[in-house]
Amino acid sequence: MHGQPRKAPKPEDEAASAAKAEKLRSLQSQFLCFHHSNIYSKEALEVNSRLLEINPEYYTAWNYRKLAVEHRLTQSESDPDSVNSILNEELKVVESALRQNFKSYGAWHHRKWVLSKGQSSLDHELRLLDRFQKADSRNFHAWNYRRFVASLLNISEVDELQYTTDMINKNFSNYSAWHNRSVLLSNLLKRKAQGFFPKEKVLNEEYELVHQALFTDPDDQSGWFYHLWLLEQTVKADAPLLVSSWPAHDSNLILLGESCLEDSALSPFNTFHSELGTIPLVVYFNKAVEGVNSSTISVESVLNTKGELTWKPLSTNNSQTAQVWVTYLNYPNIKLHSSEFYPVEVSVGHTQGIISSSGFHYSHPSRFAFKVFVRPFEKDLAGHGVEMVSWREDNFLLYESHSQESNPILSLDQLNIKDDHEESSLKWRAETIANEIALFRELLSEINCKIGKLTLARLLIAHETMLSPIANKMVHSEEVIELYSDLMKLDSPHSQYYKDERSLVLLQQITSNRESLLRYCFRHGDRTSSILGNSMCLRLNNISLSRMGSIEKLLWVQMLDLSHNELRSIEGLEAMQLLSCLNLSNNKLSSFTALGPLRLLKSLKVLDISFNEIGSHSIDTTRYLCSSPLSHTEEIDWSHDETVTGDVNLTNYWEAFLIFKDLNLTQLDIVGNAIADEKFKSFLVKIVPTLKWLDGQELQLH
Amino acid sequence: MSEDASSYPPIEPTKFDLIVVGTGLQESVIAAAASANGKTVLHLDPNSSYGSHYASLSLRDLSNFLNSHPAPHPSTSSNGHDFTPIPLAARPLYSHVEISSFVPEILDDEHSRKFNIDLCGPRVLFCADKTIDLILKSGANQYIDFKSVDSSFVCDASGRLTSVPDSRAAIFKDKSLGLREKNQLMRFFKLVQQHLGGGENERISEQDLESPFVEFLKKMRLPPKIKSIILYAIAMADYDQDNVELCEDVLKTKDGIDRLALYYSSVGRFPNALGAFLYPIYGHGELPQAFCRRAAVKGCIHVLRMPMIALLMDKCTGHYKGVRLSSGQDLFSHQLILDPSSVVPLPLISSPKDSPRENRQILGLGDEKRKVARGICITRSSLRPDTSNFLVVYPPRSLYPEQVTSIRALQIGSDLAVCPSGMFVLYFCTLCHDANQGIKSLNAAMDSLLTLPKSSHSESSTTVHSENSAEVKPTVLWKALYIQELTMDQFESINSTAMPDGNFNYNNILDAALKLFQKVYPDEELFPETVSPENPEDDNEFSVES
């Protein structure tokens, strides 16, 4: 059944298959003839059953049988014997079809259909299944059918679980058996069936079982899949949690008016410069949630004078479920005074309504508060023009922190609310993961095993985040990075995945504490520029990132340098609502679709996407991963198009159009992409009227 | 044997291609093979049942067989023919026979006959071994049914049995191995599989293949526990391999791997067989009988209870001509095969064309210095509550420091029709040089597993608690111990078969029989393929009862 090489057909086999095809064609035309004239005679059914015996994959033939059965049943409604014989006949036809091909979907489905009429005896079904399991214990059709029969027969889940144990004991290389086990256990654990509570005890036993498989034969993947499922049961917190916010808890936000002079004495982490008269308020959850609104999150502040706040999901596919939500607090200029501070208090989840996409409620009501200070306006500088931002290396100076300054990272932690009744479960989880880590270290000391390395890397990260969501010590990050680097060499077909994982770990490491983060913080020292005021730039350039992560710790960033990496996507960047300058130059972005997250960054002014691969690939592979207008999830205001674009042929550039039309960029660098010809540039100038600099050239149009 | 052979009617015809004396496995295989090739064969046995030293007997017949001291053959006279009769001498093959019955009624006639006790136990067949192939090829499978032996165990000094993890599924299920050990053992199995089935670069190096297996296992960093399981419970090594200087029979990596391969390919060969081993229903005596029946189908004549008293030698050439039976009849044949019970007087060996030493090397079975100590115990309860048919191996030094050889044991229950229901037969054996040493080993193994009643007529059949554990040891109802000689195979002009060896399976015995057949009939194919409707090659014809 498995692992048998295919043989090339011999000439006599080919002759036989030609004869078979001939026979099949003739049966088929006879059958279709009966079918079209709705004939359900004995003879017609006979032709059909012969046809299905040869070709069980013929769906039309199965459907015809269903019609025929319905027809014959209505004619013999009163007589239970004839009903029985009609249905038994069907079961026989299915059996002979399955003998021909035991993986025929149509045949299995027909059998289910017949049985669901509730007229047939089910005893035979288990015997039939036994025969199939003997022929091939990994036949997933038979397993699937077994679940169906077991539920019809009301066989207890405990018995079925024992059956999977028996099958696994015979040969543990059986995905279907392990899978069925996970399904049955999920149900038993969910309803806390007798002997299946507490969950911790049951899972420990399952770990014990799967370890036997993993150690006996680490090359067999089926056990690893079950192990992954177990890890998920161990690690996952069902309820969504708030992981960070901007402004952070207990922070003192300094609000700079338009064109305020920079002041190096102010902490750049907490200084915010807004021209829109609003402060974004961002909440970041550990998983996508829905139901974030003014009743589930209450905001108490004098700043919020307009009544109810509108929360917006930061999701690129326009769904109402998102991990990050934003709202805007208004601050009418006249009411604010520099001598005062304005406290804001945010309560999350005190009324129910925030639900994760898997249906779990936000169950840890939390509260965070911050204060807003205002710097007085200095009107005389308001006339100062906007300057071009230069990313030149000599414009950056490593940031020297002031010890008294508030720490953007520590403040996150106060959001973590500990729950006493979860303590013991947390302890078990940490112990379990620690135990797994020790085991897989032992396994890897014996053999070089790809999936073992991957599992160890995952375990270390899980352990890290579980034990110290607060401290974020990241004691294992070097080891994990090494494991992923190893895997990239060992398993090059999946190197992109390992590279992505490594990027995430690297970012976790960088953002794990204040000291390590500060090594990447630079003052942008271009004295001629004033657009950024007291500007600080986070420079994550040239560190081989293929993916962005740890964004929940970077919500404060206004200027970000991601140049000279290997980014193919900027997924997640949409959460950085304060971002005004972004450098993505010299990456591997291959289309405008990949820039989708930028559309949600309303503050973005300066963008460098030069020297990427936009336009060099005829097939946009990101379109399958990210949303696009073709996926019908975009809100497109088509009426807007003609007015702006006029004579430009939009069809060539509509992806670019979708990205740029909502941005108010003043500066864009696009040189070094295949798409960036003169025609395209002139198109950009049209659709981005705010643009002042394009590829370093000041535009003369305004 | 008790009947007077002279009352038999004379045998017709009087000339044969081959006369075979003794119905042991080797003789029966050769007789069946010769018959299958169209030879006329006369198959004689002085005993009243088939099997000779491979027979399965009732308790009474077994003790009679072991204790019988064949009377010297009456002197024969030469009647002026052109041949000289040379009287045969009987060879003592069993010694130190010690049979104790603790429950007298076990020997009641009715009871005694319900036993089919193997003389050459403990013995099993590997599902993938040559014997099974030969049984299938010869068509003897029609006459014999097998059952799977449930499991095998390694026994430690405290008498604790731990199961032998002999397959992927068994390693997975094993409770006594640690995770790391499971990984190491399975990896070693894979290495062997790759060596056997893989390409050039997956093979184990020649240098390693020639090295002692124990060194190779060390090189593979296998821990002592696993090493011991592989050496003694899977590769079935006889002597302590850890002490290479003192070891009489160092197992080479090459051979160790072959044995592993045999074991591994045995697991799962037959769908109904759970483990690697099979046992014939009604005992091992069924095997020679099945070959005899096969021979009979092809025209072989069998005569039981017919001792042969002398060889007839050509007066001129000094070559073999025929045999004289105890009935007084002279029969002639081109070839003769003798079982090891009789010895041809020495002078006959003095005119060799090729040296006997060389012949010994050809067949290579047995060693005059070595003996096999065998033991049989009958109990009323199984050593393991959950299973009745299983092997037990005691590696060297596992019972006491001076134990130099492995001790092997086999428990067979009444479901294999070897004893009355509710009883169990336990076989023990070990190789030895000295009878006392062999008996000491067997007694040590028996003591660790069983309770022996103090008085030989004690009625007690209850179980007794052992000192160091709460487990109960079965009580012995009947016990036999004996030393069996290992004999050489062959003489110059007279071909002789060997005694059963000390192994679990018949591979060496069968190899020797096939070589003997080849020597007698160098140009004949062994059991040529027939286009019979029986289709003996079809494994499905092979009956393993579940």
TrEMBL record, chain A:
Reactions catalysed, as given in the entry: geranylgeranyl diphosphate + L-cysteinyl-[protein] = S-geranylgeranyl-L-cysteinyl-[protein] + diphosphate
Source organism: Lithocarpus litseifolius
One record GO biological process: prenylation
SUPFAM superfamilies: L domain-like, Protein prenylyltransferase
Repeat as UniProt keyword: yes
Family: Belongs to the protein prenyltransferase subunit alpha family.
The EC number(s) this enzyme carries: 2.5.1.60
Gene Ontology, cellular component aspect: Rab-protein geranylgeranyltransferase complex
Function: Catalyzes the transfer of a geranyl-geranyl moiety from geranyl-geranyl pyrophosphate to cysteines occuring in specific C-terminal amino acid sequences.
Keywords, alphabetical: Prenyltransferase, Repeat, Transferase
Chain spans, region Disordered: 1-20
Designated name of the protein: Geranylgeranyl transferase type-2 subunit alpha
GO function term, MF aspect, one: Rab geranylgeranyltransferase activity
Pfam family, one: PPTA
From TrEMBL, chain B:
GO CC terms: cytosol; nucleus; Rab-protein geranylgeranyltransferase complex
Entry annotated with the keyword Amino-acid biosynthesis: no
Signal sequence bounds: none
MF-aspect GO terms: GDP-dissociation inhibitor activity; GTPase activator activity
Pfam families: GDI (PF00996), RAE1_2_domI_C (PF22603)
Region (Disordered): 527-546
InterPro entries reported in the protein's UniProt record: FAD/NAD-bd_sf (IPR036188), GDP_dissociation_inhibitor (IPR018203), Rab_escort (IPR001738), RAE1_2_domI_C (IPR054420)
Keyword Kinase applies: no
Annotated keywords: Cytoplasm, GTPase activation
Location of the protein in the cell: Cytoplasm, Cytosol
UniProt record, GO biological process: intracellular protein transport; small GTPase-mediated signal transduction; vesicle-mediated transport
Chain intervals with Acidic residues compositional bias: 535-546
Domain RAE1/2: 372-483
Highest taxon above the source species: Eukaryota
UniProt xrefs under PANTHER family: CHM, RAB ESCORT PROTEIN 1 (PTHR11787:SF4), RAB GDP-DISSOCIATION INHIBITOR (PTHR11787)
Biological function: Substrate-binding subunit of the Rab geranylgeranyltransferase (GGTase) complex. Binds unprenylated Rab proteins.
Stated family: Belongs to the Rab GDI family.
Protein name: Rab escort protein 1
Species this chain originates from: Lithocarpus litseifolius
